[in-house]
Amino acid sequence: LSILAAREGPVKGVIQVATATLLLSGALNFFAPSRSVSAKTDTTWQWGRSTCNQNMSPTPRMVKHLVGVIHIDDSNDENVVVLSNGTVEDWGNGGYGDLGNGTAGVPSCQPVLVRNVSKVITTASGFDSVLALTTDGHVWAWGFDGQGNLCNGKTNSYYPTPFEIPGVSGVKGIGSGDGTTLLLLDNGTVETCGNNKFGQLGDGKTGGNSATPVVVSGLPHVVAV
Asked: Would you give the distance in Å from CA 25 to the centre of its chain?
């Protein structure tokens, strides 16, 4: 259990809370940014248990060197933030390259800059993987591609440096879960890739993972995923 909060000025004024549940371990990770109108800089706070604080912290501690946080995300002991300049920073376990800084199996207790990506507006974290949506409607990915969930035609690979998902454009929303990725397109349709054990690809089938996007059946005019 780990909690993270980004704030501007006093602790009051929470503007976002991110929650991730790990289905295998039952662990939880949360964080939330908050802002004060009078403050000049924002700060990010974390409490609970994490990779770098196994003995737990019952009161918030500040995560250094983060300014201008506009989006927060977390999964599997990884913390991800999008900054107002369109860059992404990440910290935590980093076991399968999900820090996005070119390393794998090297944890970081402080935020590190994710390579290659810019103009990011939001992210979606799955199990040991991260997606990033950019202003031009393209999607970048890094981390573990265990079940085809990075939509690049491959499985059981890991990518410590982000790559642009091939053949994907016109995306306005993203989602990621336990090995399954969702892509919401400008035309209101949804495409999925990855794990389909329980039919979560939405293509009318159960089983048979897909490492490339498939269209969700009978679901037009979608506005959010």
From this structure: 18
Contact 213, 187 (CB under 8 A): no
Q: Which two tokens stand for residue 159?
A: 């990518």
The residue whose two tokens read 């979608």 is 222
How confident is the model at residue 6, as a pLDDT?
Answer: 58
Q: Which two tokens stand for residue 203?
A: 């293509």
Pairing of strands 69-75, 53-63: unpaired
CA dist 172 and 178 (Å) reads: 21
Alpha-carbon distance 138 to 183, whole Å?
A: 10
pLDDT tens track for 5-19:
555 554 444 545 554
pLDDT surpasses 50 at 219: yes
The β-bridge relationship of strands 157-164 and 139-145 is antiparallel
DSSP code for 14: B
Gyration radius of the chain over CA positions: 17
CB–CB of 72/32 below 8 Å?
yes
Structure tokens at 100: 């996005």
Check whether 22 has a pLDDT greater than 60: no
Q: Give the whole-angstrom CA distance, residue 99 versus residue 20.
A: 17
Give me 133's structure tokens: 């949506």
CA–centroid distance for 8 within its chain: 22
Under 8 Å between Cβ of 103 and 93:
no
